[in-house]
Amino acid sequence: MRAAIIGGGIAGMAAAFELEKARAAGGAIEYTLFEAQARLGGSLASETVNGVVLERGPDSFLSEKPAAAELCRELGLGDQLTPSNDANRKTYIVVRNRLVPLPDGLMFLIPTKLIPTALTRLFGPVTKLRMALELLHPPRPSQQDESVAALVERHFGTEAVNRLADPLLSGIYGGDATQLSARAVLPRLVEMETEYGSLTRGMLAAHRKMRAKAANGAAAAKSQGAQRPRTIFTTLRGGLQQLVDTLESRLNPDWVRRSTAVSGLEKVEGGWRVSSQGKNEFYDAVIVAAPAWAAGVLLGAVDPLLGEDLGGIPYSSSITVNLLYDEAKLGTLPEGFGFLVPTVEGRSMLACTFVHRKFLGRTPPGKAVLRAFLGGMRPEALLAQSDETLVKTVRRELSEILGPKVLALGTEPEHVQVSRWRRAMAQYAVGHLERMKRINGRVAEWPGLRLAGNAYDGIGIPDCIRLGRKAAQEIVAEKELEVARR
Fold first, then answer.
1. Are 110 and 203 members of one domain?
2. What global pTM score does this model have?
3. Fewest CB atoms within 10 Å of the CB: 87, 256, 267, 420?
């Protein structure tokens, strides 16, 4: 079997690795990994500057989703896995240039503790009253998809959307709560509303189940030897570039083509014709791991309806700015991991992470790294600005939010790193699940075709790895079944 993988991000690399494993196990498999850029890994990119690990794209992955950590261990990187410093985890929301901590007992978007919610400065009296009365909401069967903002506003009011849902979802998805699908992004909350009515009561019930499960798991772990509790985030000690480099080293270098864009895709008898750099090549199967907007262009010539649905998946752009400081030149930073900035604050920054606090051991003592995020679904004009202008904006906003005693405008960073990610983050807009039903239905009509990436069933690194490996496993199984039927 010959397979083409279009797109050398983490999903495409995971697919190639899975095919390489099948080949090493004796399978008659060849593959070609096409990547339009000069490097593999997509937005996974990091470098070490003066002993400090700086991430240009994502800095970690969710620990509760196992695919990324499993792949790291499979690649021999298990000893490099680094947990987040959750003992000191604290996050703030910017409200009129003041840092307000998220109240204790907040389970994602849902307040579950009365006193911290009543005392927080994050919400006004009207919102707090709505949160108390929310316990009385009757069950509400969900009839159709709606935005996350609509769901949260119905339960807790507009202020909860502006100061909680918007910054949290912007920090995770780089998107707009008024556009993101509640069913695709927060399916558990939709289920809770259907069963309990009150999201607070639903979350408390879920928390009780989680505690019981954790207690049982702790008892089992104790009998088998103590295990370290799982943290929220995990990364690699030397940066996520370690994963990219190690994966690449396991692939056949003769079958990896960087700086090679695919210009055409055609279904022919018995397989697929892939066009690139003026050449046409035949493959039995194709895994399209490019962004959905690029996949839509390629597959639009094969299946116009599929191409239209793929092209209709919206994307957001983002910018990361890493500022490395001598810690002695800064004032005392607030406790915790950093802060989120609501859209209503009217700033360019979406968030800032105190990187040296989030992951210990990746920044030498005496150094501090402030990592700012800009962009999201906001005007693309930011992407056109020079690095100098972006850095100036970030430094000004940091000084205004943290205060000149912490970070004076004149405090020069030792190193600056600016990275732009155009149309990199897929947005699961209202109607996404219905769109995915149509996409999956159309893909099923084309033997030897699979899709992988962050546009379909999860935006995180573990999701992309899972989908890439699954796509490879499926085309191998499909080919084996075809051979068996002959």
1. yes
2. 0.94
3. 87
